[in-house]
Each structure stands twice: as C-alpha cells, then as structure tokens.
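As a representative case, the lines below give one protein's residues and fold tokens.
***
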Amino acid sequence: MRKAFILITLVAICGLAHGRQNVKRTTMSQQGVVSISLGNADGFGVSVIQPVVAEESAPVVDVGTPVAWWKMTATGTNATQILDFANSYNASNMPSVASGAVLNTDGTNYYYTFNSLNYFNASPTNAFDIFTNQTFSASAWFDKNEASPDNPSVLLAKNSVASPFEGWIIDSSSDEKLSFLILGTGGGVNFNEIETVATFSGWHHVVAVYKGGLSPSNMEIWVDGTIQAVTTNSSTLTASANNGIPLQIGSRGGGADVSAWTGDIDDVRIFTNDLSETQIDNLFTEGRK
C-alpha cells in the first residue's frame, strides 16, 4: 500500500511538472463543494477540494404591491410610454393622455413638470374608485413650485367638478398644507377631509391612506415616511366615492381645471390596501435613492 501511494504521488508531481500547458477545470459536487483539478494535457494532475461560499441575496424590501404605477420615466405623450401598470390596467385599455407636461431630469431622476394647464387622464373611468367597505392608498413624489398660489393645487384626483362632486382628491392648499378629501355620492355635504397642520415646499413624498369605513379617523396622510398631525373637516361620509371620472394626475374632473397642479410630480402608485408604516417608510427610502 505504501509503495502504491508513493508511485501515485510521483506520477502527480511529474504531471504538474510536465512542460505542456496546464488545464484548470472546476466542477460542482453534490456535497456543495468545488473540485478544482490541476493537470496537464496528458490527464495527470491532483484535485483540490474547496468549500463553496454562497453569495448572500439582497433582502426583500416590502413596498407593497401597486395595482397601478406611473413611473414617469419615458418621453412622449403616448400612454405606452408614460404609464406602467402592474395588473389589469395596462396601456392597451388606457385612454389617450391629454397632457402638455414636460419630462425633466435632475441628472439622476426623471419627473414630469406641470404648468397648471397640463394633466394626465390616467385611468379608465371605472378604475380606482373608493368604496367605504374597502381600503385604499395612493403614493406620489411632488414638488409644488407655484410662486404665488391662490388656489388648491390638485396632485391626484378622481373627482367630479359638477354636483354632486363625488370622488377623492389629494391636493396642496394655497398655504401649502396637504389635504385628502373623500366625497361620497349624494351631494357635497357627504364628505370627509383631513388636512396637515404642517406646510410643505420642495420635493416630498406623500401617501394618503384610507382604512375603510365612514369616519375621518380612518384617513391618514404620511409625508416623508412620517404620519402627519391633521385637522378634520367633515360632514360625515355616508356613501362610497365612485364616479365615471378618470383618475387624473395634476388635475381633476376629466380635464383642465383652475386647481390644476403647478410643479413637478413623480412615481405615482395606487394600492388597494392600507399600507403599513413599514411599507410607507420603505417607499420613501426607496425614492430617496
């Protein structure tokens, strides 16, 4: 046995010392180790067994699953270039985008700039209604840069501008507070509205959350990952806020409006659940990158 071992060793050494080009070959064994064979073209060589070091996968960050997502990353006015939907609402069943909004970039991120006359008709008319027995969240980045605001500026809305005014609105008031308003069918006295105590200018991330039900306490506004203190203006919501108006980005009522947005909008997402604090914070952190 000792003689055989010595002979094999000498053959291996001679093989490595041979003048021909050595060949390196790597294989994966069933035991999860790497076998690296070093040898020459004559087939002589030795095998070195090394353990496999598994690469760590990136952690999954929970930002919720949107039913619609406008990434604002493409040029042109065609819906297939501007809109990116997650599920059944896709470019093929979208209306044409009526907008003069301009694509801009800060060198890292793209966003659209609105000048109070631009807007996106961003959905079919039967999409993204709010029902009192369901939950809902809407997320967007915004920069309101109106020099002398004299009207509320609509960020997102699915709202009729004619009686009974049903629908929902996220806007920035003339004093730069953010509000979230739900108007139910049946008249202008059927609504809940909350408004932030704080004011906001420059780039910010906003999430409006509706937890279902008829109370304004089931509505929240989050800015930059933090829930906001709000004041409540309510005549008691008594019915769902469904209508035949398309969701609009930058305006309301299905067309241009005196309350159309002046400023920048980016990364709009709609969810059919009430986002958690962790998900909202992750959305904000993701956007800051």
The chain has a mean pLDDT of 72. The radius of gyration is 30 Å. The helical segments are 2-17, 79-82, 277-288. The first strand starts at residue 23 and ends at 28.
